[in-house]
Amino acid sequence: MRAVVYHGPGNKAWEEVPKPQVVEDGDAVVRVDAVTICGTDLHILKGDVPAVTDGRILGHEAVGTVEAVGPAVRTVEPGDKVLVSCITACGTCRFCREARYGQCLGGGGWILGHKIDGTQAEYVRVPFADTSVYPVPDGVAAEDVLMLADILPTGYEVGVLNGAVRPGDTVAVVGAGPIGLSAIMGARLFSPSRIIAIDLADGRLEAAKRFGADTVVNNSRQDPLAAVRDLTGGLGADATIEAVGVPETFEAAVALARPGGHISNVGVHGTPAALHLEEQWIRDITITTGLVDTFSTPTLLRLVAGGQLDAGRFITHHFPMGEFLRAYDVFADAAETGALKVVLTR
Is 335 a residue whose pLDDT tops 90? Predict the structure, then answer.
């Protein structure tokens, strides 16, 4: 089979590799029918995730068809259409029992495309299949379900729920890429009074309006701190969500929060970011970080199946699977191409 293989920072190839097989009793081998690229994959290619080593197949999001299962698998069988989640869960360790699947101690967590071969391939081996894949609901497009592999639960759990968004809140989202847009979509479920999206790219700010932002701020032309304070009587936002992963956006998210506010960091950081405690210690703020646990995936699947979340609106570009390298170029140059999520299909 063919797959996207990482060969060190800045170096990837679409090349021939061995097809995966069932190794452990709880494994499933899934034929990948639809797959996408994540901002985290770009961080890996920048060298920000040193645990990813030469020869690793990238990717942690897919929808596919079960081809084979180990003898211990009970919930899926060959022929089933499934969502392959970005998080793998053993289901029995302390953290899995607390629904903190991202911190799994039993060999799961974020492993696909990180510690084991991932989904940007024609086939993928998924450990702990009973607790790590989800049936695709009848009548829902596979490409829509694909958006629930990572970005929608990440924005919802790590951004909105960790950020304690409540009805009537002012929410400031720093970064209007796919994760920021997911946070905007998730925040809308809690009826905030105002959502403010902040980004450098006008195209992404236009997308933010379509996803539910009430106000947009291009911080290349406007001071976001002044804008947020103007809209909140000088207080700042009740909840700020950092959705980029660079020091400047984290520092902005902290500064934008009101006293007593919540700052939820979602972005993947590859370099140190400053926290100015000499300024912040007195303001009663709460800062949260986190890796998505995907405990919300069943809920989000029901919302998508019921038409309450339009997951398909994230998709801006389609490619056949053989054009993975071109898809990476388009996704990486999102400021020029307008790419939100690219989908590659068999």
Answer: no
